[in-house]
Design goal:
By secondary structure, the chain is α+β, with helices and mostly antiparallel strands. It contains seven helices and five strands; from the N terminus they run E-E-H-E-E-E-H-H-H-H-H-H. The chain has helices at about 35-50, 85-105, 105-110, 125-130, 135, 140-175, 180-195, and strands at about 5-10, 15-25, 55-60, 65-70, 75-80. The chain has a five-stranded antiparallel β-sheet with strand order 2-1-5-4-3, sandwiched between helices. A hairpin with a 6-residue loop joins strand 1 and strand 2 (about 15-25). It starts with a strand and ends in a 6-residue tail after the last helix.
Length: about 200
């Protein structure tokens, strides 16, 4: 799971304008990093232009997923990740990033007759590092992981109970000491409890 790009793009006019971004290009060769960075900026602008206000979308291109969140203030947040990165975490991060950006830089600072071209938003560097591991950065992912672990333990417990139940069946059948009435009682009780079998 990898995050490559987080950016805020002004998308109310065409061509879209990249207001601020942070890229993690360490997985690319030193000779191709600049090219990949330009590719990410250009395609982010293209996705932002096609993201309506209030819309969230995921666009897959080759081995990348572009997560987009359009806002009514005339900007869109874009995250580029690999396909394995959870979309839920990406969209939570987008909401956080765009909200923080707009609280620091209101719409009046990037629209109007003489808008500023680039904006300082150093938090992006922190976020692109912190959110590389979505399970550590996102509380929902942590809870989901804990639930999955608990579910595994629960399944193991149920399986061991079922195995024990099968052994009891075998013992009852083999037991000569039980009267026919006891065997019938056990069989009837088992039928009554069969509605509670967990699969």
């Amino acid at each position: 799971m990898k995050l490559f790009y987080i950016g805020i793009i002004k998308n109310e006019d065409r061509p879209a304008q990249e207001l601020c971004c942070e890229k993690d290009l360490t997985s690319y060769s030193r000779f191709t990093r600049e090219n990949y960075g330009e590719f990410m900026s250009v395609f982010s602008k293209t996705v932002a232009e096609r993201t309506r206000p209030g819309q969230r979308q995921d666009v897959e291109e080759k081995s990348y997923t572009f997560h987009a969140y359009g806002r009514t203030e005339g900007v869109a947040g874009i995250i580029i990740s690999d396909h394995d990165y959870p979309a839920l975490v990406a969209h939570q991060l987008l909401s956080k990033v765009v909200d923080e950006f707009l609280s620091k830089h209101p719409r009046s600072s990037f629209s109007g007759p003489t808008p500023q071209s680039t904006f300082s938003f150093p938090e992006l560097k922190e976020y692109i590092t912190k959110y590389q591991d979505p399970q550590q950065a996102d509380s929902i992912m942590k809870i989901q992981r804990e639930l999955d672990e608990t579910k595994i333990v629960l399944h193991k417990t149920i399986e061991s109970v079922l195995e024990r139940g099968e052994k009891i069946d075998t013992l009852v059948q083999k037991s000569d000491g039980l009267s026919a009435q006891s065997k019938m009682f056990y069989t009837q009780a088992k039928k009554q409890n069969s509605c509670c079998v967990v699969m």
